[in-house]
Amino acid sequence: MNSAAPMLHVARTYDQLKLDVQNSETAIRLLLGRYERSSAFAAWSSLYRSIEELINLPFSLRESPALLRILLGLDMIQLDVQSLRRLVLDLEARFGTPQRDRFMMAFVQCSAVATHALPSLVGRDGVPRNVGQLIGFLQAHRRHFLAVGYLIPSYCTGSLSVLPQDGLNIILPIVAGNGPQVTGAQNGMLIKKACDSLGITQAEQAELAMLDDLFLEPERLRITEITPPIAGIEMLKSKEQLPIAVFSAQELRNEIIEMEAAYAEFDLSGTEFASVAALARVLSKHAKDGYNITLAPAEFDEVVARCRPSKRLMNELSAGAHDYASALDCVSPFIFSDGMFRTTVTLVMRFCYRWRSISLDRGKRYQIRSGFIFEKAVSDALVSQGFTDLGVKRIQSQEFDVLMMREGVLWNVQCKNNFTDLATVTSTPALFASYNKRLVRQYERAISKELAREHLLKERFSADRIYHLVVTRFPVVCAERRIVPFSRISTFFTLADQLERDKSSK
Length: 506
Prior knowledge:
- The protein is α+β, with helices and mostly antiparallel strands.
- The protein is globular and about 75 Å long.
- Helix content is 58%, strand content 8%.
- It starts with 13 loop residues before the first helix and ends with a helix.
């Protein structure tokens, strides 16, 4: 379960939070229930494509810094017509008329709601002032926009037709209003259950830090944290040349190659991911415009059967969602609407990443190797914040994960790469609380173990002040500040300063 900006309602009881979820779910059903399914889905589909393209447009313009500056700085409230005209002409020259038109539609719609509707939903301070801030807002709410698409086929049972230009006006109140109410209340329920199971009052964490700064879920080993082996480097030579487009079928196929190359040492192609990759490659051939993929039921069955998926994989291809909360966790690439199976190259790629993790996590070698790489990621993050890596892994036959020095203070950091599928445990507060308690107790014992062998560090480094912390890949709820979720590693220095101040004040 994910949220752009979770509101925890910490003063409310568990039952009140549960009622908040039910009321918000009811409001979403009533809002969507007024509209006719076909036109609503078409409007959502067009809107979601524009959002995806706008979020990824800076990557497509990274070789054109001047143009990128114009894009990101374009004012949403006080429109600079001359800058907009220049930007639009450049976008058309690079990407063609359809891309230009989608950008203009998205920009005009977002500019209008930023002026009128959005302030009442997120407050004036939350309104994006320029395109750079707009991209951040859309990225933070991306899952919410997608969740609406999963619900339209079952929720839209009315007769009101939706015009393409009205999609944002209809969907935004859900995405910026009701949706965050659902996730905020559910996060509050998770935290309250977790605190009850630990026998503590409300934990000091202001939020359940599920997502990192890029709004990504935790993974045991990100593709950005691994270097392809020699065999993988050879695979990369088969990548295709990309057309000048924000999204394309070629990019989908290239990203599959990059995954297979990066994880070649774990034989990713020998796992169930092989079926997913085969399916994605076949589907890419059906992306006539480089983005949308639509299959009739018979064609869908034929394509899927050709790739020989497992029963579990087959079930997840178009599982859909029964309510807003489950829609946020849904990773099915296909949405069945108007008698057709519909997906996009971005949804297929998202599904590939999901099954890459599922397939790899079962391997013992991968679990061990990813642990060492996780230690390196933690070390690099701390070095970037002014800590000095002591480069010591063993003292008198005792192993240590990450040892850092900063201003004469030694920081002994244990790295816990525990990982489980978030949707599995966060869907049920009691299940999350049980898993959370098990991890917290494990981490508390790890800190106690380090305290017991602190003398080894004092003898080796002549350090008077030593702090023992745990950095965990899976975010947990607890009252112990020395347990740090990796999703908040970029603020480790702030925690270090606070621990130092607390110790000085005693």
